[in-house]
Amino acid sequence: MAAFSFKALENSGRLRKGVIEGESARNVRNQLRAQGLKPVEVKPAVVKREDGLRWQIFKSYLTPTELTLFSRQLSTLIQAGMPLDDALIAVAQQSSKARAKGLVLQLRTRVREGFPLASALADYPKVFNDMYRAMVSAGEQAGFLGAVLEQLADYGEERQYTQQKLKMAMVYPIILVFVAVVVISLLMIFVVPELVGLFRHTDTELPVLTKLLIQCSDFLSTYWIYCLVLSVGVIVGLKLLFKRPSVLSRWHSVLLRLPLVADFVTAVESARFASTLSILVTSGVPLLDGLRIAGQVLGNRTLRDASAEVAKAVQEGASLHRALAQSNRFPPIMVHMVASGEQSGQLEVMLSRSSQNQERELEMKLGTLTSLFEPLMVLVMAVIVGAIVMAVLLPIIQMNDLVA
Length: 404
Description:
Elements lengths: L1 E8 L5 E8 L2 H10 L3 E7 L1 E3 L5 E3 L7 H16 L4 H11 L3 H15 L4 H5 L8 H13 L2 H52 L11 H34 L3 H11 L5 H22 L4 H10 L4 H15 L4 H8 L4 H13 L2 H57 L1
Antiparallel strand pairs: 1-2, 1-3, 4-5
Helix pairs in contact: 2-3, 2-7, 3-4, 6-7, 7-8, 7-10, 7-15, 8-15, 10-11, 10-15, 11-12, 12-13, 13-14, 14-15
C-alpha cells in the first residue's frame, strides 16, 4: 500500500485534510466514504517523475524536533518488541502533521516492499543525513536497531540543547546592538536637527565637534532611505557572495585566524566532530566511514578539509590521534584524549568526554564574552551620547562666554 493525501468534506460541510494509506486512489475514496466523508481530492503523497526521481508534495524535511521525536518513538516501540512495520504505522498515527505522517507512511511502504529501513531512509537524504542512515544500517545489521535509534534521539536532543544555548547567548548582544543603532539613528535624524538648528545661522565660529554633528545629522536626515536600502543591499549581496564555495572557503579560513573567533569556532566544530564520531563508533560504524561522515557535519570548510586529511592519514595506517595532531586544527586536549582512548580500547568513550569538555569550555567562553560585551556596549553608547551632548552644549557655553 501507498500513502495518499486527501481533501474531503464532513457532513457539516467542513473541509478535512490528511494522509491515509490505501492500495489505490479508488480504495482511499471508499475508505473516506465509509467514514462518512465526501472525497474532494485524492492524490499520491509521492509520485514518480519521468526521470525516475521522487517528488514529494510534502516538503521533504522534518524539523530537528520532529526528527528526534520520530527516532524516540520508533526506538521505544521496537525495543518493546513491536515489528518494524507495525511500529512505523503507530508512529504515523501519533503524528499530528500531514508532512511527517506522509513521510513515515512512505517509509513503511518501502519496508513492506522488502527494503531495509536504511534503504528507505536513503530516498529522503535531506531528512536523514549520512550519519543517520549509516547508524541505522549498522543497527539493522547488528540486530540492535532500537538501541541505535535511542542513541540518535539522545544525540538529537543534545545537539538541540547546544544550539539553543548558542542562540540564547547571541540574542542579547544582537538586541543590544540593534537598539543602540536605532536609538542613535533616531537622535541624529529627529532630535539633533532641532537642537542644533539654533546655531546654524549664528555669526560665531562653531566648535569642530558641533560642525561634525551637524554634517552627520544633515546627511542622515537627507539620505536615510538610501542608507537603509544600501544596508539591505549589502546584506543580500554578502549572502549571495557567500554561496560561492571559493569565497566561503576563504572566509572560513580567515575566521580561524582571528583572535577569540578562532577559539570559538574551533570549540564548536571540534565538539560536533567528536560527538558525531563517538556515536558512530559506538553504533558499530567502521572508523573510516565514521571519520568521513563526521567530517561532513562540520560547518567550517577549512576544518572539513582537515577532517578529510585525517581520514586519509588513518586509511594509510596512521593512528587517529597522530593524524589529528598532524592536521594542527583540533584542540590539543582532544588529541590527548583520543590517544588515551586508542590505547585503552575505549575510543568512543574518550571521544564523548572530549565533546563534553569542548562544550563546557565553549559555554564558559560564551559567558565570558557576553559579560564583557555588555559593559563594552554601554561604554560605546555612553561615549556616542556624550559626544552628542557635548556638541550641543559647547556652542551654548561659548555664547555665554561672549555675553559675559
